[in-house]
């Protein structure tokens, strides 16, 4: 069956309300029927004690998106050969789902850095980009060849970053309102991001 699917990847440590808001923006666009959230394993060079195990991040993702009907949480990047590059993931999914049109989803801040991604030209050969547009952002510094493959979706960003949330938690500052309640419960139960 022909369908269009957005691929939204990240380490989600933790998944927060900003991620949910951007996911809704992608789903509200006319471009995709479903959103597949790809949980990225940590590259070996980024491992440290402050980062959560893959399974814990997966639990938080599943809790956060439990009420979304058109979202699928995918562990494919943990199953493919390491290191896992975006182009490998997209090619694998296209082979497995030949009748599906895929878009790679990202925020506008990621678009500004996209030219630095490994094999970024090859990614654009495989799929277009779906980018959540921040009001007032300019794309003057983005390569026109990249922009030609971009579809912008309207988005009012929530100012939240996983690194800031981890920092607040380590400093004993409340993170209520930054993450979904179900995710907050997992963080508290497992004492994540504590010093």
From TrEMBL:
EC number: 2.7.7.18
Function of the protein: Catalyzes the reversible adenylation of nicotinate mononucleotide (NaMN) to nicotinic acid adenine dinucleotide (NaAD).
Family in the record: Belongs to the NadD family.
Every Cytidyltransferase-like domain range: 7-168
Protein name, per record: Probable nicotinate-nucleotide adenylyltransferase
Catalytic activity: nicotinate beta-D-ribonucleotide + ATP + H(+) = deamido-NAD(+) + diphosphate
A Gene Ontology molecular function term of the record: ATP binding
Top EC class of this enzyme: transferase
A single BP term in Gene Ontology: NAD+ biosynthetic process
Keywords tagged on the record: ATP-binding, NAD, Nucleotide-binding, Nucleotidyltransferase, Pyridine nucleotide biosynthesis, Transferase
Pathway field: Cofactor biosynthesis; NAD(+) biosynthesis; deamido-NAD(+) from nicotinate D-ribonucleotide: step 1/1
UniProt xrefs under Pfam families: CTP_transf_like (PF01467)
């Amino acid at each position: 069956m022909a369908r269009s699917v957005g691929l939204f990847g990240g380490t989600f440590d933790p998944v927060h309300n900003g991620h949910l808001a951007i996911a809704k923006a992608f789903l509200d666009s006319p471009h995709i029927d479903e959103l597949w959230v790809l949980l990225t394993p940590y590259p070996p060079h980024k491992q440290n004690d402050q980062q959560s195990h893959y399974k814990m991040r997966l639990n938080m993702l599943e809790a956060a998106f439990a009420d979304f009907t058109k979202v699928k949480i995918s562990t494919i990047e943990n199953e493919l050969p390491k290191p896992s590059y975006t182009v490998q993931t997209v090619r694998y999914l296209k082979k497995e789902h030949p009748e599906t049109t895929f878009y790679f989803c990202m925020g506008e801040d990621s678009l500004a850095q996209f030219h630095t991604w490994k094999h970024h030209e090859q990614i654009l050969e495989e799929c277009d980009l779906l980018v959540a547009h921040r009001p007032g952002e300019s794309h003057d510094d983005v390569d026109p060849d990249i922009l030609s493959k971009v579809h912008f979706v309207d988005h009012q960003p929530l100012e939240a970053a996983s690194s800031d949330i981890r920092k607040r938690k380590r400093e004993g500052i409340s993170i209520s309102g930054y993450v979904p309640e179900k995710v907050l419960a997992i963080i508290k139960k497992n004492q994540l991001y504590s010093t």
